[in-house]
Design brief:
25% strand; alpha/beta; binds manganese (II) ion; binds ligand LP5; Purple Acid Phosphatase, chain A, domain 2; six-stranded mixed β-sheet
Length: 238
Amino acid sequence: MSRTLFIADLHLCQEEPAITAGFLRFLQREAHHCDALYILGDLFEAWIGDDDPNPLHQQIAAALKALPVPVFFIHGNRDFLLGHAFAAACGMTLLPEEQIVERYGQRVLIMHGDTLCTDDQGYQRFRAKVHQRWLQKLFLSLPLFIRKRVALRMRAGSQQSNQHKSLSIMDVNQAAVEAAMTRQQVQLLIHGHTHRPAIHDLKVQNRPARRAVLGAWHTRGSMIQLDASGVTLIDFDF
Ligand code: LP5
Ligand code: MN
C-alpha cells in the first residue's frame, strides 16, 4: 500500500494498558500495511534510560521489531533519553529533531513540535538545560530509583507549571513554524506535541503550505497518512 504513517504522543506507560493494547492493534491493523512508520516522539510517558527493566518496554520493542516495515523515531520532550540500544531492540532508526521525508513526490518536514513552542520561554530554558550532554550522562549514571524520583519531580513540576500557562503559550509560534519550513524549503510540516490535532493551511514564502498536527492517544488513536494525494489526519477507535 503506497502510504507512510506518522504517529506521536501515545505516552505509553504501565498505568494505561488500554493505550498499549490499542497501539499493538494499530501495529497489526495499520502499520503492517504501509511503506514506513514514523513515530514523532512521546511514544512513552517518560524515559529514564535504556536500562530501565520495565516489562512494557520489552513488549513494545518486540512488537516494533516484528513489524515488516521500516520504523523511524524522533525524540519527544518525554522520551528524549531513548537511546541507540533500545532503538536497536525495536529495530527503529533514530532521526534528528528535524527530518525531511521525500515520498510519493511530496517533501515533508517532520519533528516532535516542542521546538516550535518558542513563546513558552520557561520550557525552552528547561529544554536547553536537559539537552546538555554532560547533564544527561550524569543523570543516566544515577541509580534507577533516583532517576525515577527525579522524573516524577519533573513531571509534577511540569504539570504545576502548565496550570499557570495560557493555552496560546503552549502552542506553536507561527513565526517559528514559517521559519522552520522556509529553512527546510518545504510546504508540508507534520508534528505532534501540542495535542491539538488539525491540518492548518498557511502561506510559506508566499506559497500555499500545510501544517498537520497529530493528536495524543487517550481514548482513541491518531495518525497521519501521507500518500500521493498529500496528508490525511485520521483518528480511530483502538
Ligand atoms: O510534559 P508536559 O506535557 O507536562 O509539558 C511539556 C513541558 N514539560 C516538559 C517536562 C517533562 O514533562 C518532564 C519529563 C521527564 C522525563 C524523564 C526525565 C529525564 C531527566 C533528564 C535530565 C537530564 O517537557 C512544559 C511545556 C508543555 O510541554 C507545553 O509545551 O509547557 O514545559 C514546562 O513545564 C517547563 C517548565 O516551565 C519548567 C519544568 C519544570 C521541571 C521541574 C524541575 C524539577 C527538577 C527536579 C530535579 C531534582
Ligand atoms: Mn510532547
